[in-house]
Amino acid sequence: MTVVVCAIELHLPAPSSLKEKRQILKSVIERIQHRYNVSIAEIGDHELWQRAAIGVACVGRDRQPTLRVIDQVMNFIRQNPAVELIRHETQIV
Predict the structure, then answer these.
(1) pLDDT of 74
(2) Is the pLDDT score of 70 beyond 90?
(3) Tens digit of pLDDT for each residue in 10-45?
(4) Which long-range contacts (CB under 8 A, 24 or more apart) does 59-63 make?
(5) Sign of CA dihedral 72, 3, 61, 32
(6) CA 85 to chain CA mean position, Å
(7) How many other CB atoms are found less than 10 A from the CB of residue 46?
(8) Residue 6's CATH number
(9) Does residue 31 contact residue 56 with C-beta atoms inside 8 Å?
């Protein structure tokens, strides 16, 4: 069994309030969950309007397919105009 965990830091340029930030982030998180069947949650920067930290986890039998899913999630985030990727860190357990 392989577990891949990815911590992602994002910049959200549009929000002018925490309510707007949460709406944008909720939309992004729900689309990722639905499309890639991964566990995902906001893990930091809860009170900052234009920053977010999210964690993504994927469990699979083999290493390569599990890493591929995380790569697809990262590509989805990079292509999303509502958020900008600042950095990410991936760990294999």
Answers:
(1) 96
(2) yes
(3) 999 988 899 999 999 999 999 999 999 999 999 998
(4) 59/1, 59/2, 59/3, 59/4, 60/1, 60/2, 60/4, 61/1, 61/2, 62/2, 63/2, 63/92
(5) negative
(6) 9
(7) 12
(8) 3.30.70.1120
(9) no
Q: Please indicate, yes or no, whether the overall pTM of this predicted structure exceeds 0.85.
A: yes
Integer CA distances (angstroms), 42 to 51, 60, 63, 69, in order: 11, 22, 25, 19
Q: Packing angle between helix 18-36 and helix 63-79, nearest 10 degrees? A: 140
* Distance separating alpha carbons of residues 84 and 3, to the nearest angstrom: 25
Mean model confidence pLDDT for the chain: 94
- Domain range for 72: 2-92
CB 57 within 8 A of CB 37: no
- At 2, the amino acid letter reads T
